[in-house]
Design brief:
The protein is α/β, with parallel strands linked by helices and 514 residues long. Helix content is 35%, strand content 20%. Strand 18 and strand 19 form a beta hairpin. The longest helix is centred in the first third of the chain and has 17 residues.
C-alpha cells in the first residue's frame, strides 16, 4: 500500500541531536551482524560508537594476523554520523600501527573500489547505509579485490567484532593528531584520479557534442563534488547539477512509497523533482543514492526508467561496442530480467546468473569477463572498472548512449522488446510471521519435486542457492527471504503478458505459503 504522503516533502523534522546522542550513548548495542559486506542498523542500539570501534578493531586484528600490507582508505557518505564513524575507524587502525588514508570529503562507494584497484589502498572501511532512511548508519569492509567482502571474511570480522563488543578494553585508540605525528594518517585527492579514468571509459566528447539537456541530482550525497568535476573537466555546458543540498536530515528529498525518507534513485517518489524536470526543458535526468553506488534515470519520452530496462539498453550498447566477444559474459543476479539472456544469446555470449548481492560479481569483474554486471535494484559495473556498483558510471553511460544514438532510452528499450519480446516484471515484499519465515527457510529444490507445471507452463528447473527460483518455459518466479526484516520477497517475470504475471503470482504465493 502506498502511503498518502509518498512524493511529498517531509513535514516532521528528524531530531538529529537525539540521533547523535544515541550513537554515543547506546545502552544495549545489538551484536555485530554483517549482511552483504557490512553491519547496518538504526543509530543507537542498531549502530553506535561501539559498533564502529569493535568492527574496526576486528579489521585491524585480521590485517595484522594476515600480514596485509598497505594503506586502508577510510571514509563515508554524507549521513549524520559518517564523518564521526570514519574518524573513529582511523583512530583505531592507526593505534594498531596501520596506515590510513582519511580524505577530507565524503567518499562514494565506487571510489573506494577504484582506489583499491589502482593500488593506492589495500582495503577500505566505508561508513554508509546506502539509500536507507537518515536514521540508519552502517560500516562496510572491502578487501584487496575492491569489491564487497566475501562471506568467509565478513564472518571472521563479525566474530572478532562481537568479541571486542564484549571486551571493549582491548580496543586500541589514539587521537588523529597523534596518528599524523606518527606518520600513519594522510589525506588524498580522490576526485581527480577517478574523473580522469572515467574519461577513458565514457566518451564525453560524444556527450559534449550532442548537446542533450541533462539534469543531475546527487540526492544530497557523496557524488556532488564529482559531478562538479565531471562538468568542469569535460566542459559539459548542457549538464546542470540541479541540487547542491547537503543535509543529513535529507529533508529536501520527497518521501518514498512507505512515507519514509529514502534516497532511492530508482523510486518514482524520491525522484519526483527530476520527473518534473524531464517534463520540461531537460531531455535526460540522472541521480545517484547518497553513497553513489546506485543509479536512477528519467527521460522526456519514458519518464522514470526502470533499472531492468536501463540494464538491457546498456548491455546491448556495450556488446555492440565490444571488439572481441570471445569469453565475455553478461552477469546478472537471480532477480534481474531474463531479457538480458535473450540479448546475450543473440550475440552468442553466455549469462552468468549469480545470487543476489554484488559480491558475487567480483570474480567475473576482476577476471575481465563481464561486459556488464547488473542487478534489478539499480546497481551495475563493467569489467576493468570498479568491482563495486557505480551509479556515476551508469548515469554517464546512459547519457553517452542517448548522445551516440540520438534516441531516448525508453525508445531503445522498446526496440529491444520488439526484437526479443516484452517481459512483464514485478517484485512484491510480503510481510510474514516468524512461523512462515521458519517454514520457508526449510524449503529446498527437492521440496518441489512433484511440481510439474505452474501458471500453465512446464517447470524446467528449480534453483535453491538463494531462496527458491522456479524456471518456466517463458517465465520465472523467485521467492527470497530478507536477512534483516520479516519479509519474503516475491519476484516474477513473464513474456506472456500481464494476466499471466498475475497468475504466476497467485499460484506461487500459494505454494510458498505467502
Amino acid at each position: 500500500m502506498i502511503n498518502e504522503n509518498a512524493g511529498k516533502l517531509p513535514t516532521e523534522k528528524i531530531d538529529l541531536d537525539k540521533l547523535k546522542n544515541d550513537f554515543y550513548k547506546a545502552q544495549q548495542p545489538k551484536p555485530v551482524k554483517f549482511g552483504t559486506s557490512g553491519h547496518r542498523g538504526q543509530l543507537g542500539n542498531g549502530f553506535c560508537e561501539m559498533h564502529a570501534l569493535s568492527i574496526t578493531q576486528a579489521v585491524a586484528k585480521m590485517h595484522l594476523e594476515d600480514n596485509i600490507k598497505g594503506k586502508i582508505l577510510v571514509g563515508g557518505d554524507t549521513r549524520l554520523m559518517s564523518k564521526a564513524t570514519a574518524e573513529l575507524c582511523a583512530q583505531v587502525l592507526t593505534a594498531n600501527g596501520l596506515k590510513v588514508i582519511l580524505p577530507d570529503i565524503p567518499v562514494p562507494t565506487p571510489v573506494f573500489s577504484f582506489e583499491i584497484l589502482e593500488g593506492r589502498a589495500c582495503a577500505c572501511l566505508n561508513g554508509t547505509a546506502s539509500h536507507n532512511p537518515p536514521q540508519d548508519m552502517g560500516l562496510k569492509y572491502n578487501g584487496a579485490n575492491g569489491g564487497p567482502a566475501s562471506g568467509d571474511i565478513t564472518s571472521r570480522i563479525e566474530k572478532y567484532a562481537n568479541y571486542f563488543m564484549e571486551n571493549p578494553k582491548e580496543i586500541k585508540q589514539i587521537s588523529l593528531q597523534e596518528a599524523k605525528q606518527k606518520g600513519l594518517l594522510e589525506d588524498a585527492d580522490i576526485i581527480s584520479p577517478y574523473i580522469k579514468a572515467l574519461g577513458r571509459k565514457i566518451d564525453f566528447n560524444i556527450i559534449k557534442n550532442a548537446k542533450i539537456r541533462a539534469a543531475i541530482h546527487p540526492l544530497g550525497g557523496t557524488t556532488l563534488p564529482f559531478w562538479k568535476a565531471i562538468k568542469r573537466e569535460y566542459k559539459l555546458d548542457d549538464l546542470d547539477i540541479v541540487s547542491h543540498d547537503i543535509n543529513p536530515s535529507f529533508d529536501f528529498i520527497p518521501l518514498d512509497h512507505d512515507g519514509k525518507t529514502r534516497m532511492d534513485p530508482s523510486s518514482p517518489y524520491p525522484m519526483a523533482p527530476l520527473l518534473k524536470l524531464v517534463q520540461g526543458a531537460y531531455q535526460f535526468a540522472g541521480a545517484c543514492d547518497p553513497d553513489g553506488d546506485r543509479f536512477g534515470s528519467a527521460t522526456q519520452k519514458g519518464g522514470l526508467i526502470v533499472p531492468n530496462h536501463a540494464l538491457c539498453v546498456m548491455a546491448d550498447y556495450l556488446i555492440k561496442k565490444q571488439k572481441d566477444l570471445a569469453g565475455k559474459q553478461i552477469g546478472r543476479t537471480l532477480g534481474t530480467t531474463m531479457l538480458l539472456d535473450k540479448i546475450a544469446e543473440a550475440n552468442k555470449i553466455t549469462v552468468d546468473e549469480v545470487n543476489v548481492g554484488f559480491k558475487y560479481f567480483v570474480k567475473g569483474l576482476s577476471e575481465g569477463r563481464y561486459i556488464l554486471a547488473g542487478e534489478e535494484s539499480a546497481g551495475m559495473s563493467i569489467a576493468n572498472w570498479t568491482t563495486e556498483k557505480d551509479g556515476m558510471f551508469a548515469v554517464c553511460l546512459l547519457l553517452e548512449i542517448m548522445s551516440a544514438t540520438a534516441q531516448d532510452i525508453a525508445g531503445l528499450y522498446k526496440q529491444l522488446t520488439l526484437v526479443y519480446g516484452k517481459p512483464d516484471y514485478t517484485r512484491i515484499d510480503n510481510t510474514v510471521t516468524d512461523d512462515i519465515k521458519a517454514r520457508f527457510a526449510k524449503l529446498s529444490a527437492d521440496s518441489f519435486n512433484n511440481l510439474q507445471t505452474l501458471a500453465g507452463e512446464k517447470v524446467l528447473k528449480i534453483r535453491d542457492t538463494d531462496g527458491i527460483k522456479i524456471y518456466l518455459e517463458n517465465s520465472w518466479v523467485l521467492a527470497r527471504m530478507s536477512g534483516t526484516e520479516p519479509i519474503i520477497k516475491l519476484y516474477a517475470e513473464t513474456f506472456k503478458g500481464k494476466e499471466h504475471l498475475q497468475k504466476i503470482l497467485k499460484e506461487s504465493a500459494k505454494i510458498f505459503n505467502l
